[in-house]
TrEMBL record:
Superkingdom to which the source organism belongs: Bacteria
InterPro entries: FtsQ, POTRA, POTRA_FtsQ_type
Ranges for region Disordered: 147-232, 346-404
Acidic residues: bias regions: 152-163
GO biological process, any: cell septum assembly
Pfam families with a match to the protein in the record: POTRA_1
Gene3D superfamilies linked: membrane protein fhac
GO cellular component: membrane
Name this polypeptide is given: FtsQ-type POTRA domain-containing protein
Length: 404
């Protein structure tokens, strides 16, 4: 006679498990339907360039919806579609909040093409397209003028051919209209002078604008001008590179692939040595005659863009150690040497480096405007002697009184 199998579970244990399941189901139903877990707030962290409102709008999170039913992976995917976002994360913050974290791409340059600007990062991804009137203002403000003689010639050409005034020049001398930094202030000619005030012969009547209101109006006008000419991000304006159908969120493409890749590689090299955020203008119209402007005051004639990793490091060393913070000079770096001259001087004074530094004589005194030539070490020995300072020779310049 067979024995009956005993039940594998005690009846009391069955009741406990059943009760637990009922409680869990009730709790789950309560969490799904109770207003406590309805989303009341969505907030962002990590964004500095993108507005939180834009990120939240892209995330498409519905307030009032239950926090447990939101698909976090879909929210993340929608946020990553923003061109400025490189990485994103989404998490629930109980009982009723959604947190969105982003890491933004860093704008590296403004590429001027077809009367619009494409803001790109170091990988060449287009983060934003600017097509309004600011673009022409930026080109006008940040395109430098080479010499005083060039300005006079441009005025003559404009008088003969008015259409030529709209063409920006390619080579560079920084003008006073654009100060170092990412923002540019109006020139002194644009500011109201004292002559604009009413004279004794023409006193303002009772209907004239009060003096305080005049001052406020002038300040507002100056502020609007600064906002128009100021770049949103601290990055150089690149001219001479035409992009094909630039679109935000897409990679920059050009028929001049070699020029585009060389330009992006140069930007990466400048970023490594801390010069990219100080650069304000980059002319690559001719890939063999490239012009770089640092802080709207240092024009660097680079020539071609070969071996830029070493050349950028050497250029940064010369600028940081040999050029003052307020000096405006032209730096010829088209060969192995760097020659420095004042922008007003059309002739480059190049000095051969002597074997020993000569002592200044009584008749020859060093001048603050003297030109300097800097010769880097050869590329092969650069890595072995990277800590050595560059050899700078100075051309002493006699004053006019001494020459007389």
């Amino acid at each position: 006679m067979r024995r009956r199998r005993k039940s594998w579970m005690n009846p009391k244990l069955k009741l406990i498990i059943l009760f637990t399941l009922i409680v869990c189901a009730g709790v789950a139903a309560g969490m799904l339907f109770t207003p406590v877990f309805h989303i009341q707030e969505v907030y962002c962290e990590g964004n500095s360039r993108l507005a939180s409102e834009d990120i939240i709008a892209a995330a498409q999170v519905q307030t009032g919806k239950n926090i447990l039913t939101e698909n976090l992976s879909q929210i993340k995917k929608r946020v990553l579609e923003l061109p400025m976002v490189e990485e994103a994360g989404v998490r629930r913050v109980f009982p009723n909040k959604i947190k969105i974290w982003v890491r933004e791409r860093i704008p590296a340059a403004y590429i001027y093409t077809d009367n619009q600007c494409a803001i790109v990062d170091l990988d060449g991804k287009i983060l934003e397209m600017i097509t309004d009137g600011r673009v022409e203002e930026w080109v006008k403000t940040y395109t430098p003028v080479h010499t005083q003689q060039a300005e006079e010639n441009a005025e003559k050409d404009e008088a003969e051919d008015p259409d030529s005034a709209a063409k920006p020049t390619g080579s560079a001398k920084p003008t006073a209209s654009a100060k170092p930094g990412s923002s540019a202030k109006p020139t002194s000619s644009a500011k109201p002078t004292g002559s604009a005030q009413p004279t004794n012969s023409a006193k303002p009547t009772g209907s004239a604008v009060p003096e305080d209101d005049k001052q406020e109006n002038m300040e507002n006008a100056n502020t609007q001008q600064e906002e128009t000419t100021a770049l949103p991000y601290q990055a150089p304006l690149i001219v001479g590179l035409k992009l094909e159908k630039p679109t935000a969120g897409k990679n920059a493409e050009s028929k001049e692939n070699e020029k585009l890749s060389s330009t992006l590689e140069t930007l990466r090299c400048l970023e490594k040595v801390g010069l990219l955020e100080r650069a304000t203008y980059f002319d690559v119209t001719s890939i063999h005659d490239v012009i770089l402007v640092i802080e709207n005051r240092l024009e660097v004639e680079l020539g071609n863009l070969e071996n830029m990793e070493y050349r950028s490091a050497f250029l940064a060393k010369v600028i940081n150690e040999k050029i003052s913070a307020t000096e405006q000079v032209i730096m010829d770096y088209r060969g192995e040497d760097i020659y420095v001259r004042q922008p007003e001087d059309g002739q480059a004074r190049m000095v051969a480096k002597p074997s020993a530094s000569p002592k200044p004589s009584a008749s020859t005194k060093p001048d603050s405007t003297a030109s300097a030539s800097a010769k880097p070490e050869s590329t092969a020995s650069a890595s072995a002697k990277s800590s050595a300072s560059p050899n700078i020779s100075v051309d002493a310049k006699q004053s006019e009184n001494e020459s007389n």
